[in-house]
Design brief:
Order of helices and strands: HEEEHEHEHEEHEEHEHEEEEEEEEHH
Strand order of the largest sheet: 5-6-8-9
Number of helices: 9
Shape: elongated
Distance between the termini: 53 Å
Length: about 325
């Protein structure tokens, strides 16, 4: 049971295991996406189609007929990874052994829908994967296995998600082998250490330049590639503000005299420099609304009007840049 690429990667590991036979795949109904709003299958469905597996896409399990259809498979286990649907107790009671969930955090930290994004935004340096037995409460079941993964200072949510999916698939197949040969340990979660990773609201991706540059860096990484951290820039007093997506860069030099948070300072070391509360943040590439990605030089020339020789001269070896 799963829907996005994270779950598809986990399913790939399960399908590659000689000890497991997948009877069916459950995934979210196809959703409209893109400008044409066409309903497209998700990554798990695409993988299941290629593997020739039965596919079911119920809207909910409130219909007893849906519960009965699942029960007819008589599964030993239910394997759940980023399914996107709350499973009622009637479903959790179906497998002969237990329902297992692959969660992308070190539980009890970051229960909920967006553990990867929340961990990065919070500046965490460690995350991991937890295999747990599911109960009828949000990510609250007893833990079976955990593995730790370091979060690099420049890791984005997309990059970390891919690593955790691969780790989760390997850990799940290992759990299934142990379950097959005699059982698994289970440890209850410490309720005093629970934190929650609520679903990302697109409005949260708006960069607050009044924050320290390190926090801005964490936010941009957490929102990359989706939904994309953004800010607004007004090119002239009489023009509408332009929405710009920022790609992750790095914390740069100290603030120049007179700079205020949100000021676009121009080219600094071949990056677009924007003033934060305590330092300048260096952005390598941006995506203006309705446009393709462009590097800092192109943005400076096309939007800031800074494309003469003096402006380009500030792009030198690290440490040699100055404000434009």
């Amino acid at each position: 049971m799963g829907t996005p690429q994270f779950a598809a990667t986990v399913l790939e590991h399960v399908l590659a295991s000689d000890d497991v036979a997948v009877s069916a795949v459950y995934t979210q109904p196809d959703r409209p996406c893109g400008r044409g709003k066409k309903c497209l299958p998700g990554p798990v469905k695409m993988l299941a189609l290629d593997a020739g597996l039965p596919i079911h896409q119920p809207e909910t399990f409130k219909d007893p007929a849906e519960v009965a259809r699942l029960a007819a498979y008589a599964p030993d286990v239910l394997l759940v990874a980023a399914y996107g649907m709350i499973l009622p107790q009637a479903v959790l009671d179906i497998p002969r052994l237990m329902p297992l969930n692959v969660h992308a955090s070190l539980l009890p930290a970051w229960r909920g829908a967006a553990p990867i994004e929340r961990a990065i935004a919070a500046g965490d340096t460690l995350t991991g994967v937890t295999i747990m037995r599911m109960v009828a409460a949000l990510d609250a079941g007893p833990m079976i296995l955990q593995r730790v993964l370091a979060i690099g200072q420049n890791d984005t949510a997309g990059e970390l998600r891919a690593e955790l999916a691969d780790l989760g698939g390997r850990l799940l197949t290992h759990t299934l082998k142990r379950l097959r040969t005699g059982g698994v340990p289970m440890v209850e979660q410490d309720p005093d250490k629970v934190t929650y990773a609520r679903k990302i609201d697109k409005a949260e991706a708006l960069v607050d330049w009044n924050r320290p540059a390190a926090e801005v860096h964490n936010l941009i990484r957490a929102m990359t590639p989706h939904p994309g951290a953004f800010f607004f820039w007004k090119p002239a007093p009489d023009r509408e503000a332009l929405r710009i997506i920022a790609h992750p860069g790095r914390v740069g030099c100290p603030l120049p005299p007179g700079a205020r948070p949100g000021d676009i300072l121009g080219l600094l070391e071949c990056h677009l420099g924007v003033a934060c509360a305590d330092a300048v943040y260096f952005i390598p590439t941006v995506v203006p609304a309705g446009k393709r990605p462009m590097d800092a030089k192109a943005f400076s020339c096309g939007y800031l009007g800074k494309c003469d020789d003096d402006a380009m001269a500030v792009c030198g070896p690290p440490g040699t840049g100055g404000a434009v």
